[in-house]
Amino acid sequence: SLGATHGINSRQEDAVEAIRALTGGNGADVVIDAVGRPETYKQAFYARDLAGRVVLVGVPTPEMQLELPLLDVFGRGGSLKSSWYGDCLPSRDFPMLVSHYKQGNLDLDAFVSERISIDQVEEAFHKMHEGKVLRSVVDVGSVVEVQPERASA
Hints:
This protein is an alpha/beta fold. The protein has helices at residues 15-22, 38-47, 70-76, 90-102, 121-129; strands at 28-33, 48-56, 79-82, 114-116, 136-138.
């Protein structure tokens, strides 16, 4: 429903080999690592086409290190990049995305596995690390919209 044509469960099969099989041995044009762990980034690196791109969206922790043979980085070509908030300008793009959501053009609800209270946050982190939920949203009750003060002329 979100546009994927194939799904791969890396607990059941080698994700890199499965992606290569789906792409005639070439690898994907773009591989997005939304997890931000060295293991998943390395999979993304080897799952891409030689001229492909790896985009790191998941945020790693400060102590995480990536080890790749430098010859592989050189020999495989392509590009490696990170993307913070989709490389957008939040002051411009967030209101546009909210507008698309309100118009029904952007199904953000499909990414929400559960709505939780503030006292369920710790449990939600455990479920996320175990792969049981995609995204938990904390419902803090009714939200009051605050209007910025207007400067007088």
